[in-house]
Design brief:
heterodimer; A: mainly beta; 7-stranded antiparallel sheet; 6-stranded antiparallel sheet; 2 helices; globular; B: 326 residues; mainly beta; 0% helix
Chain lengths: 325, 326
């Protein structure tokens, strides 16, 4: 086989300890230097039992925007988180409690944490996306924190991950959204069901949040459950985005972060060079880089997939290629 | 972007066959249509009673030929769905066929016509002639004679001959496809590579016949029903064969011969250059040409696929490629 031009844009996810004191156990931790200079970092791990994190003790403050995502892996019910979580926000230490899949937007400079897993009925997922290539934090030790309070000052930062009303309003005001037609496959609960209409390998269940859902952050991201083989987007062959993006494949085995349970291929570059992953991995798509099709080749166990695109919107023009001989 | 191997991907052409051979247009592909492939083939759906190959009289070819009658019944691949007669030899022995079959016609053997005596449900007929160009000499004949058995051995059931426990080094019975299909057969000689782990996009039901099943012809071929997405062979990425091969995709709808109902992609050459088919077509694989993976990208309607490989055996060494990413 000939040398491949874009191999450096495909990376297996690294399971390791995060920054000291942030998480109690190893997790997937990827920074910009691990992703060809991508201008964000992310973490991914399973929540299997009660505990604290982000940070384990005290609170933290970052010089960049961040989202903290809590999502279910219940294939039967995408809206089931499977536990109860609390988070403290602001110098006031306002405590917010939630039991549904949720994204917490942390504007730069906002004191936050710890996250507490109060009850875990079934394992679920926690991932973070930080809008800087390198993790940075100011740690506030427990002794410097005041008492936990009840309040509503930061309530608007705690958002349901799945929200039919938000979807409806966005649709009514004509937001472009994914630029790929995902807006046409939303059910009454606000969950996208793209597998049937968009492509057989696409998600069973999916949500997509944009910058205007996320306090205006320079970010749009997804969370999805996937279980079937085939091409993801029958509507086209290759597309690109004006902003950089990563495509993250993660497994659903809470006891093995290094297991994906499926194999996918993706075309990369104008050459349509195919790159294959069958362990948790990320494809890096620099600004304007043509990519797709994503095709699921086999699935032994349903898996998760996350888009992380560094723009409030997701402009996705198709790139002209010859799809038929 | 210009592709290097685009010349090896061909759409099937619906047209008239040689004069007097078939009464209606059918897929007809000769070597000149397939980059010099050293065989030719026809393919058609049989939807009603009729006569063909030839329409009148008998004929003789200067090359070996297989006449295949395959089922479209996805529930039971051994249900042909009709009754056929064929006349063989100068003696004009008439044989009746009512199950999926292949008739081996050694070069020089007078044969024909084929008569579709009864068609309960559509089935398929394809002919593989082991020469790049169709050639035939017509023969005037009298009435066919029933009751003979001289050529009975040339009519074979369209099933896979399985050799459980065979020595894997025995090239005639132990090697088979070279890809593990021998381990996914049922007691009736039908392979189930999709549900038995070869790959999620592979056949629901497949049969594979080799030279030893086909009077020693330099040929192995398949017939299969396909309905699911995904990679066809999980065990490897690319392989090659010492002999030339074509991979033929046809639809499952007898009323829409130009409709495939699915889209597949196939890696071709050391570059793994992907080539896509979503209408009836074929991939030409010259001797030693690396190809695969085959991946079904979407499938709206079950389709059919057959291999024609110009060797009695199907040696399939994997070609080393980098998978997965490091």
């Amino acid at each position: 086989m000939l040398p491949r031009k874009h191999k450096h844009l495909v990376k297996p996810l690294l399971v390791r300890s995060g920054p000291e004191g942030l998480y109690p156990e190893p997790l997937i931790w990827m920074e910009g230097k691990d992703m060809e200079g991508f201008n964000a970092c992310f973490s991914y791990g399973f929540v299997k039992k009660p505990g604290s994190c982000h940070p384990v003790e005290g609170a933290v403050m970052h010089p960049y925007d961040e989202v903290l995502v809590f999502a279910g892996i219940d294939l039967e019910n995408f809206r089931n988180l499977g536990g109860e979580v609390s988070i403290e926000l602001g110098e006031e230490r306002e405590e917010y409690v939630f039991t549904d899949p949720t994204v917490v937007c942390i504007p730069k400079g906002l004191v936050h944490g710890p996250v507490k897993y109060r009850r875990v009925d079934r394992p679920f997922v926690h991932y973070t996306i930080s809008l800087a290539p390198q993790y940075q934090a100011t740690v506030i030790p427990p002794a410097e924190l005041g008492p936990v309070t009840k309040g509503t000052k930061y309530q608007h930062l705690v958002k349901p991950l799945i929200d039919p009303e938000r979807m409806r309003k966005n649709y009514e005001r004509g937001r472009i959204g994914s630029g790929m037609g995902y807006e046409s496959v939303i059910d009454e609960y606000g969950v996208m069901r793209p597998r049937g209409r968009m492509g057989p390998g696409n998600a069973d269940s999916l949500v997509w949040l944009y910058g205007d859902d996320l306090e205006g952050f320079e970010l749009n991201f997804t969370w999805g459950h996937y279980s079937q083989c085939g091409k993801w987007h029958r509507g086209g062959e290759v597309h690109s985005h004006p902003e950089e993006e990563i495509l993250i494949f993660v497994g659903f085995d809470p006891d093995n972060l290094e297991y994906l349970g499926a194999e996918v291929e993706q075309g990369m570059g104008y050459e349509g060079e195919r790159h294959i992953v069958n362990v948790p991995s990320v494809y890096i798509c620099p600004k304007g880089f043509p990519h797709l099709p994503v095709i699921t080749r086999w699935v032994d166990k349903p898996y998760g997939f996350i888009v992380c695109c560094l723009s409030p919107d997701h402009d996705s023009p198709w790139v002209e290629v010859k799809t038929e001989e | 972007m210009k592709k290097k191997h685009g010349n090896l991907v061909k759409k099937l052409v619906l047209r008239d066959g040689p004069q007097g051979l078939y009464p209606e247009p059918l897929f007809w592909m000769e070597g000149k249509d397939m980059e010099g492939f050293n065989a030719h083939f026809s393919f058609q759906y049989v939807k009603g009673p009729g006569t063909c190959h030839p329409v009148e009289g008998m004929l003789v070819h200067p090359y070996d030929e297989c006449l295949v009658f395959g089922s479209l019944n996805r529930e039971d691949m051994l249900d042909l769905g009709g009754e056929i007669s064929i006349v063989l030899g100068e003696e004009r022995e008439k044989y009746i066929i009512n199950e999926p079959s292949v008739v081996c016609i050694p070069k020089g053997l007078p044969h024909g016509p084929i008569k579709y005596e009864r068609v309960d449900r559509p089935f398929v007929h394809y002919a593989i002639g082991l020469d790049p160009e169709y050639k035939a000499s017509p023969l005037a004949t009298g009435e066919p004679v029933s009751g003979g058995s001289k050529y009975r051995h040339l009519i074979k059931r369209l099933v896979t001959t399985l050799h459980p426990g065979a020595d894997p080094n025995d090239i005639d019975v132990g090697k088979g496809s070279g890809m593990g299909y021998e381990h996914v057969g049922d007691e009736r000689g039908i392979l189930h590579p999709r549900e038995r782990g070869i790959g999620p996009g592979n056949g629901d039901s497949v049969v594979w016949l080799y030279g030893s099943d086909l009077e020693g012809f330099d040929l192995n071929f398949t017939w299969g029903h396909y309905s699911a997405c995904g990679k066809w062979h999980r065990a490897g990425e690319m392989h090659q064969h010492p002999e030339e091969e074509i991979l033929v995709f046809v639809g499952g709808d007898p009323d829409r011969p130009d409709y495939l109902g699915a889209e597949v992609e196939h890696g071709m050459g050391y570059e793994c250059e992907r080539h896509i088919l979503n209408t009836p077509g074929l991939y030409v694989c010259p001797k030693g040409f690396p190809h695969l993976p085959m991946i079904t990208r979407w499938c709206d309607q079950p389709f059919c696929f057959f291999v024609i490989c110009l060797s009695a055996h199907h040696a399939s060494p994997w070609v080393e490629v980098e998978v997965p990413e490091e």
